[in-house]
Amino acid sequence: MRATLPLLEETDFPPITRTDLVTLQVNLGYRCNQSCQHCHVNAGPNRKEEMSAENLAGVLAFLAANPGVTTLDLTGGAPELHPGFRGLVAAARARRLRVIDRCNLTILNESRQEELAAFLAEQGVEIVASMPCYLEENVDHQRGKGVFQGSIQGLRRLNAQGYGEPGTDLVLDLVYNPLGPSLPPPQQGLEADYRTHLGERYGIRFNRLLTIANMPVQRFGSTLISQGQLADYMRLLRDAHCNGNLDQVMCRSLVSVDWQGYLYDCDFNQQLGLPIPRRGRPRTHLSEVTAASLRDQPVRVANHCYGCTAGQGSSCGGALTGGAA
Question: 180 lies in which domain range?
Fold first, then answer.
C-alpha cells in the first residue's frame, strides 16, 4: 500500500484551534467483517489490533472526570466485534451519555450477533450506518459482492426494533460517500432519493442521510496514487474549499482515540499517523489530559483537511454549511 502522508504534509490549509471538547471518538480496533475499497482505516477480517481492557477502563475514567464530554462515538473496524463493546456501551449509557455506533450494517447478520440490534435498541444507541448508495450494483462494487443485500437485511433488523420509526427516539442515520474521486452531491436532495428508493423498494425507514467525502488516506489514498489521480483529487478539494466550513469542522470539538489510547485531532489524522504531541513528545495518551487542557490547542492540519471543508463540508455528522468558497 502506498503511503499518502508524504504527499499531504506540506499544506497551506488555514490554522484552526480547538473549542470545548464534546465528543470522544474511540476506535476499538481494526478488525472488520468487510474489506471496503474506500476504507480509510484499512480494516478487514485479518486485522488483530484491538483496545485493551486497561484502555477501555481509561475511556470510562476520562468520561467520568470530564462531564462536558457528552458523546461517546464508537468506531473501528467493526466496533461491535470488540469483546468489550457491549460493556462499554452499557457503562456509558448508565452515565446518560449519548452513544453513537458507526455500524456497517452487515455485522448485524453475523454469527453470534443476532441479538445485537435488540441490544442497541435497549441501550438507546444512535446508529450511523454505512450505505454508500441506494443501488445494489454500486454498493457491491465498493464494498463487496452481496453487501447491499446484507445491508438491507441489517436495516430491516434495526427497523424491526423501532430504529428510524416516527415517534421513537431510536436514531438511524445512513452515510453516503462517493464511489470515486468526486465530491458528494447536495445532501438534502440525495436524502430524498434514498428515502424514495429504499422506502418504496425495500420498506426501509431512516432518520437522516449524511454525506461524507472520501479522504485520500489508506486504501482510497493508495488507489488514487496508483491510478495517478491524487493530484487531481486534491485540486478538486482545494478549489472547492469553503471558509464558512472552518467553524464547524469536527476536530474543533472532537478528539479521536486509537486502539492504544493515543490521541489525534480526528480519525483521519489517526490513520495518517499524525498524533497530538505533548510537551516535546510526539504523542499524547488519553490518561495524560483533561478536556480543559485540550481547549485552544492548535489542530494538526495537512492537505487532506481540505476534504472536510470542500463544498458543503464533510464531517462525521455529514455536510456542514454548503456555502460558497
Answer: 20-220+250-297
